Amino acid sequence: xxxxxxxxxxxxxxxxxxxxxxxxxxxxxxxxxxxxxxxxxxxxxxxxxxxxxxxxxxxxxxxxxxxxxxxxxxxxxxxxxxxxxxxxxxxxxxxxxxxxxxxxxxxxxxxxxxxxxxxxxxxxxxxxxxxxxxxxxxxxxxxxxxxxxxxxxxxxxxxxxxxxxxxxxxxxxxxxxxxxxxxxxxxxxxxxxxxxxxxxxxxxxxxxxxxxxxxxxxxxxxxxxxxxxxxxxxxxxxxxxxxxxxxxxxxxxxxxxxxxxxxxxxxxxxxxxxxxxxxxxxxxxxxxxxxxxxxxxxxxxxxxxxxxxxxxxxxxxxxxxxxxxxxxxxxxxxxxxxxxxxxxxxxxxxxxxxxxxxxxxxxxxxxxxxxxxxxxxxxxxxxxxxxxxxxxxxxxxxxxxxxxxxxxxxxxxxxxxxxxxxxxxxxxxxxxxxxxxx
Length: 438
Ligand code: SAM
Ligand code: SF4
Ligand code: F3S
What we know:
Blueprint: E1 13-18, H1 22-37, E2 41-42, E3 51-56, H2 61-72, H3 75-79, E4 84-89, H4 90-94, H5 96-102, E5 108-110, H6 118-128, E6 132-134, E7 153-157, E8 159-160, H7 171-175, E9 179-180, H8 183-195, E10 200-204, E11 212-213, E12 216-217, H9 218-226, E13 233-237, H10 246-254, E14 261-263, H11 271-276, H12 283-296, E15 301-308, H13 315-328, E16 332-337, H14 354-377, E17 383-392, E18 396-401, E19 406-409, E20 418-427, E21 430-435
Helix pairs in contact: 9-10, 13-14
């Protein structure tokens, strides 16, 4: 990357670097839309930008440190010309004081509820050479702002924030209380995406099962979205096992355009740890829910998130997470070691030593990886409905099954096409298939 481009090209051009989850990525699209409407233009090389936005994550220590180190490294970029550096998102909210004190080259610090006015703030900074900090949580839902899609796969936030206060988690503190968007707003955004050729839409929320607006619950919302005209597939992220209703399973079963992919974070397989985590379900509840899903929808894909080394977790309790992993046989799992987050309830409990936490994670990962491998191998010989998304190396194409598994075929297929594919082999972790109707 060059540090600076010719002066005359530096005018109202912005570059965004995004850390964190899909919610944050979606927020970057949102900022892009807001800034474009203010006459700014996005560029894909920061050398040509006069505004640099770092959209940050703070869910774990590692994510926070990465975003901080990245921002520290932008001192030279900031020095050149009349430039503005903005740090936004979850870390901006949790560490605004730190950033203000330690990173003098940052001009703008915005929390996740302040993006609507980002263009005005940038104009003020340009004009008055001031530093602006706005990390208020206002209950913003960004009503009426619909980003412009760039691919056939896209995302729509149906709610923002979270009220669950899982004892390890910083999200409720940085994104505020849960609030659901009205159906009319969600529907308009989906219709806009579909009009622009989007074929696969993931509904986003920290706990989508808690969606509630004007007495419309998540099952009702899904049903209404499934009836929106247009050929597109629907998914949703993330589900909370305590709130996942049987009605929702039935809606998924009854609508072919809703994909049978269930991302159901288990976090721990031990009841005492689950209680300390404030997850409000038991191992038995989780097991029964997955049994019900698999009984009603036999080809369901079930994925999860797991945390090892939660404060006070004993060896036996950790082994109960392993036994749940072996019993449920998740298609895929995101596995994390516990990371202490200041301000959360669990941060008041003495942490386990780092070596124990690391060792437990290193024991869990190969067990789940083997299950993932076996599950992927089971795809061989079976037929899947694949939505093609992009070209792959050497005249091949990449697409996704309804269960969210990446598949490659050695044929050129236009992004957006849905074709039936039989899986012939697995290379590395990727299933390779052939078109049924080639
Ligand atoms: N709302 C979702 C849920 O309830 O599962 C996702 C929240 S978070 C963005 C994604 C995952 O990060 C969580 O499911 C959890 O496994 C993990 N996570 C959150 N806080 C953590 C912490 N302090 N240490 C380690 N992992 C954490
Ligand atoms: Fe965090 Fe729990 Fe909310 Fe998920 S449901 S964002 S883990 S507090
Ligand atoms: Fe997402 Fe990280 Fe914020 S996981 S909600 S960007 S803390």
